[in-house]
Amino acid sequence: HVQLAESGGGLVQPGGSLRLSCAASGSILHINLMAWYRQDPGKQRDVVARIFGGGLTDYADSVKGRFTISRDNAKNTVYLQMNSLKPEDTAVYYCKAPYIEWGQGTQVTVSS
Fold it and tell me: Which of 10, 63, 98, 111 is 20 to 30 A from 88 (CA-CA)?
């Protein structure tokens, strides 16, 4: 079965950028929907961005214009480019696809 592994998180100053990667252990070509979620401690896990097989994307209002989700089916990888980061973007970020278990996530901390 396919597993997902997130990477690319870290500590960044407000206004900075990070690119998260989600590497799948198998092909994602047949997976129509891939998404990024984030979760603060003590809060629910919320969807941040979604991408469909045809390339259609949508975003949470809080990240529109700052975050970009993309996928490379040849590399079995989904990306989240995050620009103009704010302290409120601090969270653990997860990628997800239907019927695939959650990965470990990657911590993003935005702080001066």
Answer: 98
